[in-house]
Structure formats: structure tokens, C-alpha cells
From TrEMBL:
Transmembrane feature ranges: none
Organism of derivation: Ignisphaera aggregans
Quaternary assembly: Heterodimer composed of Spt4 and Spt5. Interacts with RNA polymerase (RNAP).
Pfam families: KOW, Spt5-NGN
Alphabetized Gene3D superfamilies for the sequence: 2.30.30.30, NusG, N-terminal domain
Protein name as it appears in the record: Transcription elongation factor Spt5
Record-level GO BP terms: DNA-templated transcription elongation; regulation of DNA-templated transcription
GO molecular function, one term: translation elongation factor activity
Amino acid sequence: MISRPENELTKNSEATSASVVPKNTLFIVRTTAGQENNVALLIETRSKINKIPIYSILALPNLKGYVIMETRGLHSVYEAIKGLKHIKGKVSGTLRWEDLESMIKPKPLIELLFVGADVEIVAGPFRGMKAKITSIDKTRNEVSLSILEANYPLTITVPVDYIRLAKGEK
């Protein structure tokens, strides 16, 4: 093996170039609820026309009234939202990458279920029936249900993929 001696010039230039480049930051902008997609499209158009360095724009369905933008600085955000319709306020703050990941990454259905929850069966021979969860087996990914629409107590065990939470349960 031949090893090259590292000179001080390359070490210093690499260190300074890494420290000069700032990290991208996620900023949150408050918008009118229901207008998140429109605001995101307006910001995208404005950033392309004016060459504003915005790297990504997120309008998440589970985050009503907010748009998330990835950019290097706050000045880019203000330049992008200046005078736009449906902007409720200035930048609400920054967001950590870990928090964004938890919003984007879907939770498994079995983690949302609990004993006593009302569910609807969406597959199998009992499709369309309402039921109540009596037990949960996370290792086998199955739930035991008591059918509510039966004339007598009927308990069945189905995979978690066969059910969904009834409206109003969460």
C-alpha cells in the first residue's frame, strides 16, 4: 500500500469549505386552512421566476394551515411569501428534521388500535360489518373482533389489514 502524505493546505481548504456551506433549514409558514396546496404552488412559481433558493416545499395533509419550506436562510422565505395571498403570518419558526420525519412516516395501523375501539371490516367474508376490538396480538399482527351486527355474540380473529378505524375513533 502506498500512502500519500496529507499536506496542511488540503486539510485547511476542506475544513473551511465545509464550514462555509450552511445547512439547509426547514421553515414553517402559516397559511389559510385548506389553501396549503395553492400557497405551495404560488411559492414554487415565484421561486422559479425570481430564482429564490428554495429546495423543497411541503404541504402535508395532516398539518392543516401550515406550509414547510426548505431553504438556507430566513431571507429566502420572506422573499418568497412577500405579498402572497392566503399567508396568515410571518414565519412561525423552524422545524427539526426528526420532527418532519415523524410527520411523514406513517404509523402502522396496529399501533393506533386499542381494545374497545370501533372498527369496520374492509376485507374478507365479513366485509362492511362493524365490530369492536376485544384483543390485539401484535406479534401475529391480528386482532380479535366482536361483530356488533350479529344476533348472537360472534368473535372472529382477522389480520390487521382487514380492518380500519371507524370514523370518529383516533
